[in-house]
């Protein structure tokens, strides 16, 4: 009888924060992690900044989230499909810079990071639904970009500095080899885009 009374008097549960419209913030923060291009490009950009050192890389902390915010409204102009070749080209370029252990000037590093962020911001913006709160989505996307760039850059700096034996250390070689793999993935993606 007690169970019947509880079931009869039960109201609809409002247990999810989506009802408070904060779901769009979390959707913006988690959406990039569902796309391989976001994961690879964001990680590669953070690694490139980390290999150049903290003094150059710290400029990306404000530049990358700003680029995501600039690119987000461009999603409906370009669409996700039109950014595929740009993704592949940026992946190839960043991978080659990592593989060559190139010493990129700070201004060029910021321009590369800003371009990656605008491209990926546009790709994420193309997936927005009309009912999505764009301000909350943008805030989540910018926070995710800030976190990924900062953590990847810091981990790369620590990885390369820990007991480094100079340019021929296994750590520097590992970063360069990973850059080669990133460039290869970019080359494959570009050839797939051009073939279709």
Automatic annotation (TrEMBL):
Residues that span the membrane, as ranges: 59-78, 90-123, 135-158, 178-195
Keyword Cell membrane appears in the UniProt entry: no
Keyword vocabulary terms for this entry: Membrane, Transmembrane, Transmembrane helix
One Pfam family cited in the UniProt record for this chain: HupE_UreJ
Highest taxon of source: Bacteria
Cross-referenced InterPro entries: HupE_UreJ
Keyword Nucleus carried by entry: no
Name recorded for this polypeptide: HupE/UreJ family protein
